[in-house]
């Protein structure tokens, strides 16, 4: 299995697992919490058919990557992404992030610029800044995230069940846009992730990306469901048109958080059109 070392913990390598398929313009797909690179299957298929080289990888702590107890912050996540781009020698790459993955895209561009980046896409965006403060009244109260961490400590599996129900809006979409089997597959991946990473990543969600966003100087696509219960539309994506210069914006009516799975026809159409520009 292809891996790249991105650091060490107690003398052992921390490795990122990746898959690299196809030829043509490279597209890097960066998954959401608490899943893995395999969650992109409905996009990978159409991107490969359209002639793109598709790279997916598992964030540290998730999927087949190492499960360390360090590095769960966006500076480190962006450095991990940069190491992968270096390892594969990728240039003129399109970075596509979903959920937590949009933070990697944003912090990577904010830190390293766009010398290697041709375009960017943010699906179910976490920027600009989730935490409610005096200078960020549109954010979410910090007590919400404290409650999430307490729930993970109390019973990680019960928390994941509730999280994934809201990830897919199962009370509305179960049996139509999300099957019981697909939900269970997500639960299995989430349950197999590092318990430490599952907890530690909650703190990373509160990263302030407002200084990163003005550094986007490449065409950028945002796709977000207006029924997103994980990253509410008004607190996240709705704020981005005034913060990113060259922006294409697609709102998915009735879309939950994981629109890449529940609404692939709209997501894939928008993504393919954006890549073809």
UniProtKB/TrEMBL annotation:
One of its GO terms (molecular function) is peroxidase activity. InterPro entries: AB_hydrolase, AB_hydrolase_1, AB_hydrolase_fold, Epox_hydrolase-like. The keyword Thylakoid does not apply. Keywords: Oxidoreductase, Peroxidase. Residues 26-264 form the AB hydrolase-1 domain. Belongs to the AB hydrolase superfamily. Bacterial non-heme haloperoxidase / perhydrolase family. This is Arylesterase. It comes from Planotetraspora silvatica. The lineage of its organism: Bacteria, Bacillati, Actinomycetota, Actinomycetes, Streptosporangiales.
């Amino acid at each position: 299995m292809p891996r790249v070392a991105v650091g060490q913990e107690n003398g052992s390598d921390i490795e990122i697992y990746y898959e690299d398929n196809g030829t043509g313009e490279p597209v890097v797909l960066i998954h959401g919490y608490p899943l893995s690179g395999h969650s992109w299957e409905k996009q990978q298929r159409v991107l490969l058919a359209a002639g793109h080289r598709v790279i997916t990888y598992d964030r540290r702590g998730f999927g087949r990557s190492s499960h360390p107890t360090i590095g769960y912050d966006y500076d480190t996540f962006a450095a991990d992404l940069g190491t992968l781009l270096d390892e594969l020698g990728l240039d003129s790459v399109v970075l596509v992030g979903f959920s937590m993955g949009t933070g990697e895209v944003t912090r990577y561009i904010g830190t390293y610029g766009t010398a290697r980046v041709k375009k960017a896409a943010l699906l179910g965006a976490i920027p600009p800044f989730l935490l409610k403060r005096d200078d960020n009244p549109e954010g979410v109260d910090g007590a919400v995230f404290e409650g999430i961490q307490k729930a993970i400590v109390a019973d990680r599996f019960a928390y994941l069940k509730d999280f994934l129900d809201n990830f897919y809006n199962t009370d509305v979409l179960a049996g139509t846009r999300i099957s019981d089997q697909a939900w269970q597959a997500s639960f299995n991946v989430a349950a197999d992730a590092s318990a430490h990473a599952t907890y530690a990543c909650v703190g990373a969600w509160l990263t302030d990306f407002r200084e990163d966003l003005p550094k986007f100087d490449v065409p950028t696509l945002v796709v977000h469901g207006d029924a997103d219960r994980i990253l509410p539309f008004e607190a996240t994506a709705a704020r981005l048109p005034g913060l990113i210069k060259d922006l294409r914006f697609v709102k998915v009516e009735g879309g939950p958080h994981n629109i890449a799975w529940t609404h692939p026809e709209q997501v894939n159409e928008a993504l393919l059109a954006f890549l073809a520009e």
